[in-house]
Structure formats: C-alpha cells, structure tokens
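Translate sequence into structure tokens.
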Amino acid sequence: MNIAASILKPIAMAAGWHASAQAKAFFRACRNTRQAQEELRIQLVRASADSRFGADHGLGRVRSYEDFVSAVDVGDYEARRAYLDRVFRGEPEALFAPGTPILMYAVTSGTTGTPKHIPVTARFLADYTRGWNIFGLLLLSEHPSAWLKKVVTIVSPACQDRSPTGAPCGAISGMLRESQKWIVRRMYPVPRAVSEIRDPDAKYYTLVRSAITRDVGVITTANPSSVIRIATAARDNAERLIRDIRDGTCSPPGESCEAVRGLKFLPDRRSARRLERIVRRHGELLPRHFWNLRFMAHWLGGTLGLYLPRLRAMCGDVPIRDIGLLASEGRLSIPLADNTPEGVAEITSNFLEFIPADQHGSDSPDILRAHQVERGQEYFLVVSNWAGLLRYAIDDRVRVTDFCGDCPMFEFLSRGRHCCSITGEKITEHQVVAAMDAAARTAGVHVDTFILQGHFADPPYYELRMEPVEGADADQLARGMDRQLCRLNVEYEGKRHSGRLGPIHVTVTAPGDLTRDEVRQLAAGGAGEQFKHKYLMTHVLQDGGL
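Result follows.
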C-alpha cells in the first residue's frame, strides 16, 4: 500500500462505519415493512399538513392510511403542476412547511414536453445520499479489490439553469457528486468541469483524456450506452489521445469550450509509450486494455440489457451491479447482487404503493401497499417522499421478483405503459426488445440499436428500422421478430393470424443514422447519463393513400 493510501485508509474506514450503521437500520426496516412504511407515511403527512396542499386536502385531519387515501388522489406531475409551479416561482409553502429551503430543482423531461422541476430539500437529498452510501457499502464489501481505486462517474451538471428565485436547476446526479464526502470525491479522476461540456464528442474525449492514465477500477453511470461512448471515444481517437498525453495537451474533437481550455495536464511520455504498445499489441485502444476494472455500475433493467454484449467486448467480463431504480423523484430500490436488475424497495425514503399493471389507467384501480404485493406480479409505482410528492404516479412499471425480509424486491421493466396498439395488440417495448434479442441470437448476430414503429396501411404493419449489422440478414431478423412477438403477445399473434396485421417491414438506414439522431437529441439538452434509446415508437404513422 502506498503512502497516500495509508493516509486515506482510516478516513475511508470511518466513512464505511457510518454507511454500515445506515445499512443496518435499512435492513431492520425491511424485516418489518408495514411498520416502517406506516411510520414514514405519518411523518410525511405531518410535514405537509401546514402547506397549501395540506390545507387544500385536509391533511391535518388525516390519521389512518384509509384517511390518507380518501384525502389525496393518485396523480402524476400534471396533476400536481399547480403546486409545483408555485414552489418553483418561490412559494415553497405550496407543498412544504413554511420556511423549508429548496436546495435545487432536479430537471427531467415531462410527458407534455415541458420540463419537470422536482424540488430537492435537505431531507430529500439526505435520503438520496443515504441510499448511495448503502449501495456503495454493499458493493465494496463484495468487491474489496476496488478499495481506494479511481472511479469514473458520468454525470450532468447540477446547475444548467436557474429558477426565478436563483436556485440551481439541473441533474441531481451533479448535486450528489458535489455534496459527496471528500474521501469519495478524491477517487474521481475526471474534473467536475467535464460535466459542463455540451458537445458529446468533446465531453467523452475529455473524460477519457482525464482518466486514461489513472488506476481506474470502477465505472459508474446510469446508462450503459455512456460507457460505450467512453470506449468508442478511446478507440476512435487513439492517435490523438496518445499525442495529447505525450504533449500534456487536450484537443478533443467536436466543439471546444471554456471548460476544456481551463483544464491543465502535464506531459506524460511514459504513459504515451504504454498506450502505443497497447495499440501495437491489440490493434485498438479499449478500456479492457488500459484499465483494470473491478466492476461497473449502471442500469441493467428494461431495454438496457441489449447493450451488454458490446459492453463486455469493450470493457471485459467484469461484474456489473445495477445502480437501482433511480429518478429525479427519488431512489426507489437498492440492488443487492451483481448482474441482475432487481433491487430491494427503498422503504425508508419512500412510502410506496403499487397499482396492478392490468389496472393501470382505470378509474378505480386496486392499490396495494409494499407488504401486500405478490411475487411474479407486475405493478406501476406510486410514491410519497420528501420532494413534496404525495401519492405521485411516477409511472414506472416493475415486476416483483422476491422479498428481503417482508420487503419486496423488484426489477424495472419500462417507463409508463410504453405500448403501441394499431388493432388492439398492445405490444410493449419490453416485448419488442425481448423479441429482437431472441431473433438476433437465433441469427447469430447482435443488434442493440433499432426502432419499431407502427404504420396505418392496408393491412397495418410495424416497420423495423435498423442500421447495417455485419453478418445480419435484415429480412431474416424482421421475420424472426415477427415470430417472437407472436410468442410473447397473444393479441399480436391473433391479429397476425387473422390478417388484421401485416408482417414486419424492414428498413436498413445508412450507417450511424440512428446514433446521430440520438446525439442530436442530447445536444438539444438531454442528460446524457440518463438518456434511454426508444426501441418502440408509440406514435403510429399513416401511409399515403389511406
């Protein structure tokens, strides 16, 4: 152990003891979920009783869960917008007790196109941080070789704009990075300023330039596509990287900015020679060549499993831990094991309710509490927490997989219903991804970027748009997807058998077309680490002549 590590060890151990105490309290709660949830619900109602929302809904008279249900209807952001907009304009008492400070607004996309601004209070941030502490403790206890190794984390800025009162508006991931303990921030080799680079090519190049010569053991981000962007930036710019490292410069492709020009590097001829040897030996420059990764942490659920084959090829066969169901509205689960998207419900930060998936959108759905759900069933989540959100329909679809104590464990399936129906088949994005995965495996190829979209025609049909894939027969893949969708969706099978739906048509785009579309979306203001490629377009096109 070197001198720096010897000095840091006791500080890191103290941080670990704190996280250990938090983890023990969390798992105690998981052994008595109903009590833990009821205690949290009472706290949330009492804290909101003196707000305008509390007065309008009679929260001061709420005692039981049944009272709570009668007083507050389940509602999404639009149903709460009048209160949230008042908070954003400088009236925190619209949702919070008078005098509650708002640290920032977590910005995320809204269903209407207008961004959502989620208030971040001190209690909300503390809960979010505690969840990360427990996550990190569990992960490092299973992967001790990552102890004090450098961590590449990909976040967006905490301040991308300002509210009318001057509060920062941006990514909560950026706020969490800035509020991390000193011992944790010391593990980050990438300067904070890199998160402020808007041009994606420049950002990922500069990130790699900052970290490629360091002893990186961990990559953590939300979306695995961001890790692929890191690998691609290194592979496609190997010569430029080596030159910059040798000369102590940083000359990224794309649009340069003040954040890049403000970074300082020293010439490092030794590292440049090492990277040159790697390129001669392997013919390319990838993370599995220049970093000794102990694990990666990013989402695995829903559609994101499609990225794994490419990720393994670029980064090596290292363990991957899902980071949990995270949103601007809160941390909703904490994963306990590698290579699975399931995690235990975060019941100490959120009062959770569950709507059975087949009742989503109905006027009077059954609503279950955390101790009432069943293994194997799918639900939509309803959340109450310290962001001022009570009975908030976050619209995430999950499947309950197991229990930790009597606390449910679940995996994320999709955002909202995210389904398309031309003739009543109601196919979901989850089914579309599973169908392509099976069809591609049968064909012996890998496809991770494609789009399926419905067309009104005679008969109606779905169009598969994909970029060229080496060794793939696009027509064969389309037929394979069609067969798999019939297997996965009985309504789709019935419509195809009756001729009410035609076979899948396929369109092969020019190389890079779909990827460039995503880059343009990110350049328009998306948060790169949370961006999710859409595999199923819910808007149905109408062919000419109909």
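Note: DSSP finds 19 helices and 23 strands in the chain.
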